[in-house]
Each structure stands twice: as C-alpha cells, then as structure tokens.
Recover the amino acids of this structure.
C-alpha cells in the first residue's frame, strides 16, 4: 500500500541516518504495479522530505519492469540489443571464410546470451492462452523473439531466401 511504502521509506531514512549513508533521490523511483494506468496525483511518496518520482517502467539489472507487469518492453529491448550484435557478427562472418558450424557457435556464444538474458523471468510470460490454443507447437515457437533472431542468422549463414519455410531453414 502507499502508506506501507511511505513507512518503509521513513524506516530507510532512519537507518541511513544512523549509519551515515545517503540515498540519491534523483535515481530513486517508485513503480506502482497495476493492470490499469493509475492517477499519479493520488500518490505521494516521500524520502527525507524529498518527493520520489513515480515511473511507468524501471530498469533493474538489465531487465525493464513495466507498470502493468508485462515484460514486452524488456523483450523488445533485449531483441534490439541482439539485433545490433547480430549485425556486427554478420560483418565478421562476411569478411572471414567461416564454416557453418563456427558461425552457429559464434551465434550461440555472442548473441544467445544477449537475447536470452533473464529468460527465466520473462520467458513464462510469452506463453499466453491465446497462443497455446491456436497454433501448432512449431508455429508457436517461431513467434518467439529469440527464434526470429535465430532464423535470421540461419538464413544468412545458409544463404536461404527470406520466404523459405522456417522448418526447411531449421532442417
């Protein structure tokens, strides 16, 4: 609750004062998790008489948390970072005569850790009842953002046309 958080902020101030620690209120943010967007004016969080900003999203250890509990923003950001790294990797592969095995090994070593970062947290949110109901498992798997990046790399390595079936690219 708002009262509970303000009480915790007060306790934090007491603790920090006792141990001569400081809290940078410019970097401190509050995120209120709620399915609907709420009226920010109805909440006021204070630490040591300074107002604490209420934010829609917050980046914690490289994962973006969004007010509605969705990890869509986090997945999009990770996908963007992986796409940048993939572009650089494609340049390296184009300039060197590497085997398919080495290209895949480079992808697994350099790109997969980026796009799968903290997938233990956000991965379960990808499987919505709507997705599970309508598609076969192969088609469902192809819709995941990490698989899209993987297919992009495989098509580049194998010099396969973009309209080739995904199942053939995997084969």
């Amino acid at each position: 609750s708002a009262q509970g958080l303000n009480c915790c902020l007060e306790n934090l101030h007491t603790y920090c004062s006792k141990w001569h620690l400081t809290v940078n209120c410019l970097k401190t943010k509050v995120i209120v998790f709620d399915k609907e967007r709420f009226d920010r004016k109805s909440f006021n969080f204070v630490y040591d008489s300074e107002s604490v900003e209420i934010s829609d999203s917050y980046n914690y250890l490289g994962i973006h948390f969004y007010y509605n509990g969705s990890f869509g923003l986090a997945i999009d950001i990770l996908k963007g970072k992986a796409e940048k790294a993939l572009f650089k990797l494609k340049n390296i592969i184009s300039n060197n005569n590497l085997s398919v095995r080495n290209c895949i090994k480079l992808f697994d070593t350099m790109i997969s850790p980026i796009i799968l970062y903290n997938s233990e947290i956000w991965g379960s949110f990808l499987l919505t009842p709507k997705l599970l109901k309508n598609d076969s498992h192969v088609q469902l798997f192809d819709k995941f953002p990490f698989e899209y990046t993987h297919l992009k790399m495989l098509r580049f390595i194998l010099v396969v046309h973009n309209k080739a079936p995904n199942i053939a690219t995997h084969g």
User: Anything to note?
Assistant: The beta strands are 29-31, 46-47, 50-51, 53-55, 57-60, 63-66. The first helix runs from residue 2 to 18.
